Each structure stands twice: as structure tokens, then as C-alpha cells.
Amino acid sequence: MELNSKAAKLGLEGDADLQFLLKGGELMKVKSSTWKKNRFFKLQEDCTTMWHESNKPFGKKQTFSIDDIDSVRKGRESEGLQKYTDAQEEDRCFSIIFKGRRKNLDLMATSAEDVQQWVSGLDKIITNTKKLNRQQTSEHWIFDEMRKADKNKDNMMDLKELKHFLRQINIQVDDSYAAVLFKECDTSNSGTLEGPEIKEFYDLLTHRQEIDVIYGKYSSTDGQMGAEDLLDFLHNEQCEQVTLEDAVKLIEKYEPDDSAKQQSHMTKDGFLMYLQQEEGSIFNPAHKEVFQDMSQPLNHYFVSSSHNTYLTGDQLKSLSSTEAYIKALMKSCRCVELDCWDGPNGEPVIYHGYTLTSKVLFKDVIKAIREYAFKVTAGLLPTCPPVSQTSEYPVILSLENHCTLDQQKLMAQHMRTILGSALLTAPLEDQMPTTFPSPKELKGRFIIKGQRLNKLDTVFGSSPGVEVESISEEDEAAEEHSNYLDRNKKIKLNKELSDLVIYCKSVHFSGFENAKAKQAFYEMSSFKETKAANLAETAANAFIHHNMSKLSRIYPAGSRTDSSNYNPVPMWNTGCQIVALNFQTPSKEMDLNQGRFRPNGMSGYILKPDFLRQAGSAFDPVTLTDGPWLKRKVLHVMVISAQQLPKLNKEKTKSIVDPLVRVEIYGVPVDNASKETHHIDNNGFNPMWNKKFQFNLKVPDLAMVRFLVEDYDHTSHNDFIGQFSMPLTSLQNGYRHVPLLTKRGDVIPCAGLFVHIILLDP
Fold this sequence. Notes:
Layout: H1 3-9, H2 16-23, E1 25-30, E2 36-43, E3 49-52, E4 62-65, E5 69-74, H3 79-84, E6 93-98, E7 105-108, H4 112-131, H5 134-149, H6 159-168, H7 175-185, H8 196-206, H9 209-218, E8 225-226, H10 227-236, H11 244-254, H12 258-262, E9 265-266, H13 268-275, E10 301-306, H14 322-330, E11 335-341, E12 349-350, E13 360-361, H15 362-372, E14 376-377, E15 388-389, E16 395-401, H16 405-419, E17 446-450, E18 465-469, H17 473-479, E19 490-494, H18 495-498, E20 501-506, H19 512-518, E21 523-528, H20 529-538, H21 540-549, E22 552-555, H22 569-573, E23 578-581, H23 588-596, E24 605-607, E25 633-643, E26 659-666, E27 673-676, E28 688-697, E29 704-711, E30 719-727, E31 734-741, E32 747-760
Parallel strand pairs: 10-23, 11-16, 16-17, 17-20, 20-21, 21-22, 22-23
Antiparallel strand pairs: 1-2, 1-7, 2-3, 3-4, 5-6, 6-7, 8-9, 10-24, 11-12, 12-13, 14-15, 18-19, 25-28, 25-32, 26-27, 26-29, 29-30, 31-32
Organism: Esox lucius (Northern pike)
Domain EF-hand: 137-172
Main location: cytoplasm
């Protein structure tokens, strides 16, 4: 694959910014106030890898993949650049932010013009790579692996290089099969594959038998699939209510052969391309946009929520960082936590109190939240639309206040000054409200959750501080294990900070009856996971009714010092809105959280089912009596095949995965289930199972489906390869491709499952 064809596939042939990156240039790498060193950076000819100089032994050259980049930020946007560079150097700075826990790459160019070209060039490659359809991405990846296998760079492939290539793409074949494959393609009998022979080898390799079978069943028009054939497929297999006009539009959109397109025919290549696009995805593309009613009261929604958002690792000694807030917000988290303590020089800081976690300034966190809560990334050109945006719906700042009066006052001033008019400082209504406003009414606003001196309808005095009963999450958790805390502990609360608490006043929970009789709608309690789990098990219906009029926040037990997570599903089942998880920790629980909030435009808000919102509901997820929530469904899943699963150990060329697929259901206890395929030896490129499963569901409105792919190991735990989670209500019937995500929730390019789904009434 030539350089110009790679640029052409990205739509960047002749682009000046791309040429600038390919030529490369010197940048200053900034690690500290004393470590600032010039390094040469250059985009490699594959247009997917960045190379830079290194001072490591033996002149080792460093590279990283464009796929590993989360974003590129122009200016002094990172903590490192803010600390170690001067404000007047703003226009010469930029940062490369990586996915996962890899440290940012903070850089300085020689001029503002160079910065613009570096940032613009990288943005174009990242954006245009994402636009490639799956077939193009797959082809791009396979030809790159071929290039790497071509050790002597002669644009030909001998048998030895072929074997190396097959191992690189996750296929283990015996020598005799590799020789047969090689001989079949070596039509020139030259002992090497080149030009059309390599294309023949590629076609042989990527041929999908399962697609042949499906296509053959419906291609009754001169050996191809006519518009009416495609319509039959969409009706019979995909269970879609579409018209002939819709079928023609799909042909026009995805058919690569112009002559077939003119006849309203779809070739097998066009059919595969359609199946690999969003119309052929298991996830309903209509749910990629906000489609739910956003005018209900705030407490009628599940809210994507983070615990101890500032931490990048464990709860005892990890770094506190504004970057952790940015990453959570960019994932559309809508409730973040700030543990506030007195800091030096009169400035409040955020960290996990009484631990060795590092500290970050409160004002820096508020600045980062303001910048990224409702972030819109501009298009590459002034005429281009935004390329990405976080949710426009409200962000709740959950304050854990441990500060003295003076620093509390400064906290209030910082929030008013930095957040400006976006900060909610009074009820939206002209008179005392009786219920929450809606997410729609609160678009672009910041809501403060914390302690308040008095009821919302009280006329406050001018006293600078008043003693009030208060207990923090940390104190409440510690209380169960120690007698040193005074149950009636009192703190002084600054009035300016208190006045910012409008719809989320923190109060101690003293039972559902007490809450019903004495708590106003805006008074909310936080529950440790064990307390919440017990209530969900023993008093689920009372918990549900409590959440119909109030907000509840759930947080991890203090014993989770490793920042592990609890199961959020039982909390959602009882209508708890703010189920806070450790976003920094890859886990099944975070997979489910990402899946729960995938629909509705990834807005961070999901409307709860009717039976969790309507007064008089007798729903109990544990006892599960008859009611409108019982909508019995039978889910049939056939796991057909997988494509291009990643190698787990790239350092060992002979290491090939032995994949298996597990299909898991999470919902009310009676619906929970898990079924798995057998494993397939030594094939991560195109394994095939054709394994059928059946799940009987009673409450589909609360069910989550998780597809998990693992590398089988008979001597130890299986290794994670990829997963995809989603609500059952967003699932599409028929033959569908399932994308796969990494442990940290990023898409694995090229990889996926192919399944057949039928959701039926029993």
C-alpha cells in the first residue's frame, strides 16, 4: 500500500498539514521545570504511527499509535504545562492526551504557526480515521501488518514472511496449510507473492463464509440482491419496518459497484459494508441521539456519576488530578465529587483526606470543570460542524466540605467567579418549588450538592457561620468501625457557600418514614454501598418510592482502597439516581455503567421506567409480583463469529488467542444469567462458533446485555479481550455486528462479533 493511497483513504492526499507531519520537526518535551528537552517527532509513512527520538540505551526509537491518542489540546491545557511553562508561552504549547493511564505528552513548538500545524494535522488524521468504515479500517490494518511482515522491504512476501504475517494477525496455522495457501496464490510460481497475488491472498483471507450463506439466501435477482430482495431481508431477518424506498437508499449509500447501484442491486461487498455500518450494528442507531423525554423532574432519571473523581488510581496514595475530572466529563459523567480541605496560602485543596494521595487546588478543578463540562470541539475549518461534544445537560458538583470558614468562603467565591452565570444560585421558579426542574430546564447549568444552613424557603440571617449537624461520607463509613467519632459532630458552615446549595441539600438518612414525613424534596441522602444493598434487598419498594420524590446517591465502601467498584444494577433496580463509581478503574461494573448510559445521546441522563416513577407502583425487583413491569420476553442469541480480535501478547509473535464468547444478562435477580461458547484454539482472526443461546426475561426494561470475549486459559483465569454492554431496550433484531471495547471503554479498531438476535414474546 503506497503512501499516497494511505493519505487518499484518509481523504488527506496533498494536505499541507499531513505533509508537515510526515516531514517532522523538533519539539520540546516538557516533564518538569528542569526536564525540558528537544526531541524530533515525525509521522511515519503508514500514517498511523508517530515516531520520536529517545535518549534510551542503544538509540532505541520510540513510537506510539495514532489510535492510542484520546485528544490533542492546544495551549497550556494540561497540569504539566500550567506548572512548568510561562503564560506568555501559551500559543507555543500543546498536549497529546492518551487513552487509559498513559501520561500526557506535553510539548512546545518553536512558533504558534507550527503548533497550529501539529494540532490540525493530528486532529485531521484522528477524525478521518474514525470516519473510515469498518471494511476500510480492516483493510488498512491488514496491509499495515503485511508491510511489517515484509522484513526486507521488497514489496513481496515469501513463505517465511507469510507465516510471520499470519501470527501477527492472530492466526496459528501449521506449515502444510500455510504452504498450500501460499501455493494457491503464487500463480506466477516465483516463490513470492506480489501485486495481484497479494490482493488474491487478502481476498482469500478475509472471505466470510457466513456472509455467503446469508447473501445467497436473498440474492435472487441475477445472482445479486435486488432492492426487493434487500427489503425481504430487512423485513424477515432484521425485523425492521421499512419501505422499498429505504432499501434503495441503503443500496445508494453502501454499494461500491456503480453498475450494480444503477440497477438498484446490492453486491456481496455492498451487503457486507451495510452490515458493518451503524444500520447493521446491534445498537439501535436512533438511540445515539437524545430520544427520551427530557422534561421530567431531575429525580426521574438515572445520572452518570463518579466517586472521588479527582483520583487517578487507588484511594490511599495515587495522584489527584484535574485530568481525572476532564476524562470523566468527556465520558458524559454528570455528577462529580470534590473532597475539599484547607490548603496552604489560604487556598482550599482537593484530595482524599488523611491519606497519601496528592493534592490539587480547588480553583484549578473548578476551572477544568467549567472548561470541559459542556465542551464542544470545533471543526477543523470554520465552516465545519463540531466534531465532538459532551452532554449539554446539568452537572452536579458533589461537595465533601472539610474546610474552615475562611476557605469555605473562598470556595464559594471561586465557584461564582469561575462558573459565572452557569452556576445555579437560586431556584428557577419565582416562588418556592415543590419538585425538581427538568434536565431540559437545567441545560448548561452547574448544581451544587452539599450542606445548607436552613431550609430553602427560610429567610437567611447575616451570620458568617452557624453550627449545624453534619456528617460526611468518610465519617459515616468510619463510624461503623470506630468509636472515636462524635455522632452529633458539628461543623461551622459559611453562609456564602451554604447559599449555593439549592436542589441538592445533603442530609443524614434516618429511615424512609422519617424522610417521607420530614424531608423536603431537595434534601437528599448518600448511602454507602452496603447500606444501599441491604435496603435494596429488604425494603426495595420503600426505596423505590423514596426515589420517586427525592434524589439518592450511592458510594463505594471505604474498604475499597484499591478503587474497585460495586455492582450498580441493584441500585438502578430500586430507582437510585446517582450511583457513583470509581471511573478510573476498568471493571465489569464500569462496563455496565458505560452501557447503561450509552443510549439517549450519551447525555449522562436516562429516564427511569414508568414503574420506578409512578406513585402507587408495587414493583419490587426481589419479590417480583404481577404488574405492568412484567413484560416477558425470550431472547435468542446466536454467536456466529468474530473478526480480527487483538493479540494480547504482542511481544511474543507465536502467542495466539484461544477465544470464547460469554453472553451475560444483568437486571432483576430472576433475569440474571450467563452462557458461553466453547473456546477455539489458535484463531483470533476469524473464529466461528454458530452457538445458540436462549434467555427468558421477565423485566426487560431493566435488563442489560454484555458480550464478553476472553482468551481461554486452562491453567488460570481467562484473559480479557474485549466487551460490549448495552440496555436490552436498545438492541436490534437480526444479523448484527457487535463492536468490541477495551477494558477502559475505547473501541478496538477492526475487532467485533457477528451475531443473530431475536427478541420475542413467549
